[in-house]
Amino acid sequence: MAYITSGAFTAATAGKDVVYTSAAVGSTGDNDILVSPAITNMRDMAKVPVGFEVTTAFAAVAADFGIQGSFDGETWVLLEELDADTNCETPGVQVFLADLSVTNCPFYRLVFNDGELDVLATGRITFSYVGDE
Description:
Order of helices and strands: EEEEEEEEEEE
Oligomer: single chain
CATH architecture: Sandwich
Number of strands: 11
Number of helices: 0
Largest sheet: 6 strands, antiparallel
């Protein structure tokens, strides 16, 4: 098991919001945990759209997706599991609403497969969220 961090986020304006999408990241081993880079501009104390896109399918297992928070950008805790079974064997976009209405962390990150299931090393995803400029 290893933590694999995706590439940097890029921003695109979508209506009145800014949507940030990471570079694609893939597993290098069967039970890797895929994470986004640290996010410092997520809207605290709000409900925030987050998600991922499976660009290359993983194995048909119940890989999960959630959001973690940190006070130092090094030590992470799961704030909310958004989906316990992501259907990662099918390419496509999945969007969730992360409830950060009672949370205020200086750092957040999105996490895929923190249950360390055998997702196979062939799958790839990108992470996305709506944030401030």
